[in-house]
Amino acid sequence: MAKTAIDEKQQQLARYAKALGHPIRVAIMNFLAEQDTCFFGEIHEILPIAKATASQHLKELKEAGLIQGEIVPPKVKYCINRDSWQEAKNLFSEFFGKCQCSKNGCCE
Amino acid sequence: MAKTAIDEKQQQLARYAKALGHPIRVAIMNFLAEQDTCFFGEIHEILPIAKATASQHLKELKEAGLIQGEIVPPKVKYCINRDSWQEAKNLFSEFFGKCQCSKNGCCE
DNA sequence: AAATCTGTTCGTAAAATTACGAACAACATT
DNA sequence: AATGTTGTTCGTAATTTTACGAACAGATTT
Question: By the CB < 8 Å criterion, does B29 face chain A?
Fold first, then answer.
């Protein structure tokens, strides 16, 4: 009954996954990924939700580390956080590399 | 003010991400990925949570499509769902391929 | 048939998530 | 100084998530 502690990698992967676990936030990330400029207003413009809600979603993405905000008065510029993006990319890549289903008798 | 509808791909990515948005569920997927046999009992054994909670997490992973369960009386055998796993892998891969941060003036 | 093993479902409670309008703060313009 | 623009924060409400023990159901063993 050796209860495996959840390790830091799993925690971090879950944190990123949770941040991406809402369609609006995925849409935001997709939008940021293909933009050079990325002010709040432009982001809000493409989203079918209220300003306050958009701000809230951006806050969560920021807290997960996936994006960062910069104040450029009187606007706010958002962008993808390179380092975290890379880390998330690596974590997910490793994660999905773990199951070679074809050689796994369990998946059939 | 063209409100971009959230498309099906974003929805599906978010669905998978949400399912992976909890450390316990990441641990379950990791465990399943490296096992040939995968009965409920073995899964529960490695998790620091109650039986009922483990069952609940498995149910969510199943509803997201990431795993499937098979009754092998008197046990229940769980395994990764190959097709969904591959779909998720592809969706995340495409997603993380979207930002070439180095060429993006926004991320600096 | 009674007891056992296996895992799900039920009922419940606490906490977190999602969404909105209104109020607010910071800065620029008039 | 008054006004306008931009985006966050506040307060609130409805829903969902997470977790647990207890009760249950299916199958096997005694």
Answer: yes
Torsion of CA B20, A80, A27, A19, to 10 degrees: 30
Burial class (CB in 10 A: 0-12, 13-18, 19+), A89: middle
User: Residue B107: is it exposed, middle or buried by C-beta count within 10 angstroms (0-12/13-18/19+)?
Assistant: buried
DSSP assigned state of A37: -
| pTM, rounded to two decimals | 0.92
Measured CA to CA, the distance from residue B83 to residue B85 in angstroms comes to 5
CB contact under 8 A, A5 and B48: yes
Residue B1 has pLDDT above 50, yes or no: no
- Here the tokens at position B18 are 């949400």
